[in-house]
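This is your field. Have a critical look at both lines of this record:
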Amino acid sequence: MEQEMMKKVMDEVMKRIGGGSVVAPEKASQQQSDEEKVASVCAQNIVGVTEYVGISEGDTIGLVVANVEPMLHEKLGIDKKFRSVGIFSGRTGAGPQIMAADEAVKATNTEIVVIELPRDTKGGAGHGSLIIFGAEDVSDARRAIEVALKDLRRTFGDVYANDAGHLEFQYTARASYACNKAFNAPVGRAFGLIVGAPAGIGFVMSDTALKAAEVELIDYLSPTKGLSLTNEVVITFTGDSGAVRQALIAARSIGKKLLGAMGAEPKSATTPYI
């Protein structure tokens, strides 16, 4: 269903831009922007819902609401200036969505107003996610969701899984407000996230990471301490950019070996980026 929809979208895009003719380099950037706009409009037309923006990895859907109903807005408890919201909601994954949202906040005039991590992963060992962007203008909310959806393929790059569990590693050289809200990451500093399921593997990865490099531990989360009873151990940390990457690489190396001992070789969901 998703593949058919995207094929229709791209077919329509190609029709509107002239069947994929060669474009001069100075016009390539503008054409790409135009293609994204056309794809967004086409996707809305196919689904038939104006709130729909798109879908991406981890069964994640992006939505916008131009004017939140006043009673719902009050219960949400957000600043009244945010008439519009962007909604980034996934069944599988929390870290990838938060990191993608972090990039979206950097690139748009929006703020993160809600981050909630439900017990999910479609019956697996981890979380799903609900992230809400606040915006004064619906175009800003829509753009934030578009940026986050596009970046999600990258942030799923260092998520590895098999039938026995999953591993996740996230890195940014400059944490922004999504990482700060979700993980208390210092804004503007390098930030790392390690997740391991089952929880025992997460613990060993955490120990390995902290021994491998001089980083500052921000938090340690376990099934009944800060998590939604998921079978995971999670750590977050900051420090020098090189040290944060070194810690992540050490944890990834041992984590893949341990999870691989329980089943098939853990595979990346997309393309590793760390």
User: Anything to note?
Assistant: The CA atoms of residues 5 and 47 lie 9 Å apart. The chain has a mean pLDDT of 87.
